[in-house]
Amino acid sequence: MSDSGQKLPWYSGGLSFACIRCGNCCGGTPGYVWVSVPEIIQIAEHLRMEPSEFERLHVRRAERRRSLLEHENGDCEFLVRHADGKTGCRIHSVRPVQCRTWPFWKSNLDSRPAWKAAAKGCPGIGQGPHYPLPVIEAACAENGDLPL
What we know:
two-stranded antiparallel sheet
């Protein structure tokens, strides 16, 4: 229990994560990379494009929202696969909040088994720097995906 009497989440001691650039979160399976209008503007500026042109060429409408386009194999079109097996992102410095806050999403934090399931597809979970509870909560708040 916290000082306020609320039950602390199972990850209250923090979690470890280090991106190992495997690309699993960015490709291989079709899905959505949600992108907001402000993010479209920021990415377009980064690519030296007009936002309307960027949206026309790189965004699709899905579920009344906007998502970055993917290649046929499910890879985000901004994912770059290198010969050494590592990956990169052509828009890394301006990537959408969904990308910036991985793996600290409600779906991954709902339970210890959910976190372990996410780790099966993300070898960086459980590795590297330790993120304390306030950092995890801030990531969830940023992506609007607050855990219970």
